[in-house]
Each structure stands twice: as structure tokens, then as C-alpha cells.
Specification:
This protein has 319 residues and is α/β, with parallel strands linked by helices. The chain has an 8-stranded mixed beta sheet with strand order 1-2-4-3-5-6-7-8, with helices on both faces. Strand 1 and strand 2 form a beta hairpin. The chain contains 13 helices and 8 strands. The protein has helices at 3-36, 42-45, 50-56, 60-66, 116-124, 151-165, 178-187, 208-219, 225-240, 249-253, 273-282, 301-304, 306-317; strands at 70-75, 82-88, 101-105, 128-132, 171-176, 198-202, 260-265, 288-293. The termini are far apart. Helix 1 (3-36) packs across helix 9, helix 6 packs across helix 7 and helix 8 crosses helix 9 (225-240). The protein is elongated and about 90 Å long.
Length: 319
């Protein structure tokens, strides 16, 4: 066989192998993306189990009756959906909306009602509360979970909603776990931090890339985790227009100078201690605190240390 013909055959073989590898990589990346962008559904998060309320020692009905529950549907400026929200009023009077307010951002698998135990603290402290359903949770029908990248736009819409109702009053954010990532990414986006007076991040997710890599390791798929993450990131960019690095919360928090309390636990295996530390260290402002407990599981610090938690939040908001 002539060398020229052999060379052409080799080139064709290499091209076919390359195309096969690209096709396989895209397939792998597509599987990663599917698994990481629909982590919960509305059906899964529509209702909270009875055990939730008993664990926190609160009654939903007692809170809503005491503080004048008012529901709202806030139009999203990012994609065509409504943001379902509950407004609770410290005075119990829904007409008194021009008041200091806190927006509560629930974690993955929760809904707006899952923040009610924390809402109780702020209501007692004289703050109105807005709790809302994140994407693909509760009654929010927006598709896809994106570790805060798209979720931040719903939060920013909620911030603007409150600013219209109480333009001269203090506004804070409390976010837990997945909701902590949403809060951090929102605060670091454009001029959002200028509209806020304080933030509390409870066991916050710090890195989408790290979370997905850990999940790939746990799958034991027989392929390197870094390769799976790379494939997922590339397909994610093609499909949604953002990379995993865009969900880097410490990077976003570098723009934040307002008072921030970061709460985490040394034994948390969902959002390990380093995530809270990385976020804390990235904050430029001097009015910040990192409170780390020794022995609470993920997002259970409010249950395990209610007195201390209240004290740290009280110190932050200055009541």
C-alpha cells in the first residue's frame, strides 16, 4: 500500500476516533447536566412533612395567624414565571409594609414555609419578612436548578419588590445552604449589595464545581471525576450559557462590604467547613463574623444552638 493512501486512511481513522470521543464526551456531559440542573421538582417540595414543624418546635398556623400572612406573586425579570412569596408583618397588620424587612431564602428540598422558624426570630425583632419559593421548588414553576446562577435573579426581583414597598428602611437577607449560594451570588451581582444592610449565610454552598465533582466521585462511574465535570461544564455552557465557575460564591462575595454573618459546622458533610471559611475570607468589609459550631449536621444549627444563634443574629442586626 502506498504511503499516501495509508496516510489518508490513518487521518480518516483519527478523525472518526476524534468524533467518537467528542460524541461520547457530549453524551457524558449531557448526563451530568441533567443530573445537576433538576435536583428537585415542585411535586417533591410542595408540602413539608409534619416532622419538620415538630423538629423546629413551631406551628405554621400560629405564625401565620400572629403575623398577618399575605401572599404575593412577584413577576420574574429573568424568564417567564412568577415568584410565589409570603409576606409576614411584625405588627400583624398587612398595611404596615413600610418597615425594616428580611428576605429568607430556603435551601434545596425546601420551600418558602421551611424558613418560617427563622422568620419567627426576625418578626419578634420587629422586622417584616418576605419568604419565597426558589426555582423548581414549592409553587415556583421555573425549570432548572443552577446553584444560584439563575436563582439570583429571582432574589434580586424580591429585593426590588421590597425596596418599592419600604424604600428607606433596612433590608437584610438570610439564606441557608443552596439558598446561601443564591444570596451570595445575588449580593455580588452588579449593584445589589448597595440595596442591602446585612446578610446571614447559614451553611452556604460555596462552589457548584466542587459539589458536582463530589457527586461524580460518589457515583463511581468508572471515569475520572474531573473528566465528568469538564464534560458537564462544556455542555452546561452550550445549553445554558454559563459555566460552573459562574457559581463561585467566594468570588462573588469579594464585592460585598456590608455586615455579614456566616454560620457553619465542622462536621457538615454537605457544605463542608471550608466553604463557609472561603466565603468569609472573600468578604472585603470589616463587619463580618464567622461562627462555627463543632457538632451540628447540615443546616441544623438553629435546632441545636437556638440561644446562641439568636445572639449572633442579634449582634449583627444591632437590636
Amino acid at each position: 500500500m502506498k504511503k499516501g493512501k495509508l496516510r489518508k486512511i490513518l487521518i480518516v481513522i483519527l478523525l472518526l476516533l476524534g468524533l467518537s470521543f467528542l460524541g461520547f464526551s457530549y453524551y457524558i456531559g449531557d448526563q451530568v447536566v441533567q443530573g445537576s440542573t433538576q435536583l428537585v421538582t415542585n411535586d417533591q417540595t410542595r408540602e413539608l412533612p409534619d416532622s419538620f414543624w415538630s423538629n423546629f418546635g413551631v406551628e405554621k398556623q400560629a405564625i401565620t395567624q400572629s403575623y398577618g400572612l399575605q401572599t404575593a406573586s412577584i413577576p420574574s425579570t429573568f424568564q417567564d414565571h412568577m415568584i410565589p412569596a409570603d409576606l409576614l408583618f411584625a405588627s400583624g397588620d398587612p398595611t404596615q409594609s413600610d418597615r425594616d424587612t428580611v428576605i429568607l431564602v430556603h435551601g434545596l428540598g425546601g420551600n418558602r414555609e421551611s424558613t418560617y422558624p427563622i422568620a419567627n426570630f426576625f418578626l419578634e425583632a420587629g422586622y417584616n419578612v418576605l419568604a419565597y419559593d426558589q426555582r423548581s421548588s414549592g409553587e415556583n414553576t421555573a425549570q432548572y436548578t443552577t446553584f444560584g446562577v439563575w436563582e439570583k435573579f429571582d432574589l434580586i426581583d424580591c429585593i426590588n419588590y421590597i425596596k418599592q414597598r419600604a424604600p428607606q428602611k433596612k433590608l437584610g437577607i438570610w439564606g441557608t445552604s443552596f439558598g446561601g449560594a443564591t444570596a451570595g451570588l445575588a449580593a455580588g451581582y452588579e449593584d445589589t449589595a448597595d440595596k442591602l444592610d446585612f446578610m446571614i449565610l447559614d451553611c452556604p454552598v460555596g462552589s457548584m464545581k466542587w459539589m458536582i465533582r463530589e457527586e461524580m466521585k460518589n457515583l463511581d462511574a468508572g471515569l475520572p471525576a474531573d473528566y465528568l465535570v469538564l464534560c458537564g461544564d462544556l455542555v452546561n455552557r452550550l445549553r445554558f450559557g454559563f459555566s460552573y465557575d459562574d457559581a463561585d460564591v467566594p468570588e462573588a462575595m469579594k464585592k460585598v462590604e456590608l455586615p455579614v454573618l456566616v454560620v457553619n459546622s465542622k462536621i457538615d458533610t454537605v457544605t463542608p467547613e471550608f466553604m463557609g471559611k472561603d466565603i468569609f475570607q472573600a468578604i472585603r468589609g470589616s463587619e463580618k463574623e464567622l461562627w462555627t459550631v463543632e457538632d451540628s449536621s447540615h443546616a441544623n444549627i438553629w435546632i441545636d444552638y437556638p440561644v446562641e444563634y439568636r445572639l449572633h443574629m442579634t449582634n449583627l442586626i444591632g437590636e
